[in-house]
Amino acid sequence: HLLAFLALPFLALTSASQAGTLSIESAETWGDALNLRLNFAPNSDVLEALGASVPLKFVLRQRRAGAIMHEDLAVQFIALSYAPLLERFELISNSATKPYRLRAELLDAFSNMQLPAIAGANEVRLSLSIGALPAPLRLPAMFDSDWWLDSGWVPVRVGSELPVNADAPTKLDLSGLPKP
Known about the structure:
alpha+beta
């Protein structure tokens, strides 16, 4: 009861903004790459935090369908951040940082990512890590559903190594070559 009482001032500070959205529209593997296309529409509170240099850390989990909790084959971390001194937004994944001049470019890149695929994984889930938020934001985010950005588990479609060109011949025709 004490925790709920202490959280009331934080809840009063959160604005009544439209709920954010995070869903995986498509997830497919091509060779050793996992291509994700997201529907990511954060609400104004999340965008305001990003603009105030609060890093948004996401957790991407890959598993076999039907696995129980904590049986992930792989866990990857992806972060969105703003560096005010450099005047740039950054997408950080797999120890690589990609800079973007505009927030819209960052959100577009995040919505269309290519990451390493994990062999045997046929489901993925992406969620904002509320526990990774700075301490002053953690408690309000725990009680504000606008911060609960989670795609849920989504099946991964397995593609081929290379996209097939429909105009390419399916067999090699050697009938016109001279015989040795």
